[in-house]
Amino acid sequence: MNKHLSISNEVAVALAGGKPVVALESTIIAHGMPYPANFEMAQEVEGIISEAGAVPATIAIIGGALKVGLTTLELKKFAVDGPEITKVSTRDLPHVVAREMNGATTVASTMRIAAMAGIHVFATGGIGGVHRGAERSFDVSADMTEFAESNVAVVTAGAKAILDLALTLETLETLGVPVVGYGTDDFPAFYSRESGHTAPMRCDTPEEVANLMKTKWGMGLKGGIVVANPIPKSSEIIASEIAPAIEQAVAEAAHLGISGKDVTPFLLARMATVTGGRSLKANIALVKHNALVAAEIAKAFAE
């Protein structure tokens, strides 16, 4: 066991007993939504996973410890103090741990810590990927390379719509990462159920995804799986409607010179403003839906 890991008793008991566990990130709490919506979302998502018969394990760095499973007070601290908490991707882990800092984990670092702890299912909102204009900026999320490294199935509403989805799918193919449309042939685009890009594979049940996980890792093939789960239809913002808001937010980020790890939080916040809060409601709905599907997959994998 990695000496830097600090696993809550509930999660440790579940892992030792082969029970289903679902990892959750903390960046979505600290940097993805405003308070108190972020705290309410975090509690509701953990509740959904528990009610579905799995154990939630929100991951963060607290005082330099890789915490797997947060208390309610810790969740609230990350929700309230979010802007002051460091956003931590995989490359940042040794620095933040060595300096005994607090850190909110991204998809990439959450995957790495989950894998260290022996957790194989992770629910998030949307994964990072290749940013628009990457042919000039080389801005490609570490989520992409982490999928080639950590044996974790990530339930996501596709990639964030602010990205270049075609190049994101191409990159995942290059890295040998299975991308599975969950109950769909179309790769979802976060706020929208359809992006116009075909999902390379399809699974329709938790058991099919669990079998794919066991088969891949049983063959000795390292790395994660993208389980692309469309946002519920009732909460969807169709692509043609959301596109102008995305273009506006992307243009504003470029004009202000925002880059690197600051891009996604800025764009999500601007999207919420431009859409009158509708994008935030959609974000919360898709995270809840992903949590439920992840719990069902975790149960099937444990069985």
Q: In total, how many domains does the architecture comprise? A: 1
Would you report the number of β strands? 11
Strand percentage, roughly? Answer: 5-15%
Low-confidence stretches: none
* Continuous helix count: 13
Q: Taking all residues together, what is the mean pLDDT? A: 94
Q: Tell me about the biggest sheet?
A: 11 strands, mixed
Helix content: 40-55%
**Which series of helices and strands comes N to C?**
EHEHHEEHEHEHEHHEHEEHEHHH
Please name the CATH topology: Indigoidine synthase fold
CATH superfamily: Indigoidine synthase domain
- Architecture in CATH? 3-Layer(aba) Sandwich
**What structural category characterises the helix and strand content?**
alpha/beta
Overall 3D shape? globular
Sum this structure up briefly.
With 303 residues, the protein is of the alpha/beta class. It has one domain: Indigoidine synthase fold (3-Layer(aba) Sandwich), CATH 3.40.1790. Strands 1, 2, 3, 4, 5, 6, 7, 8, 9, 10 and 11 form an 11-stranded mixed β-sheet that branches.
Which properties best describe this structure?
303 residues, alpha/beta, Indigoidine synthase fold, eleven-stranded mixed beta sheet, 11 strands, 14% strand
Written description of the protein model:
With 303 residues, the protein is α/β, with parallel strands linked by helices. The protein has a single domain, classed as Indigoidine synthase fold (3-Layer(aba) Sandwich). The protein is 47% helix and 14% strand. It has helices spanning 9-16, 27-30, 37-51, 72-80, 93-98, 107-117, 134-137, 142-147, 165-174, 206-218, 239-256, 263-274, 278-302, and strands spanning 5-7, 21-24, 55-62, 65-68, 86-88, 103-105, 121-123, 153-156, 179-182, 201-203, 225-228. Strands 1, 2, 3, 4, 5, 6, 7, 8, 9, 10 and 11 form an 11-stranded mixed β-sheet that branches. Helix 5 (93-98) links the parallel strand 5 and strand 6. Helix 3 (37-51) runs parallel beside helix 13 and helix 10 crosses helix 13. It is globular and about 50 Å long. The model has no long low-confidence stretch (mean pLDDT 94).
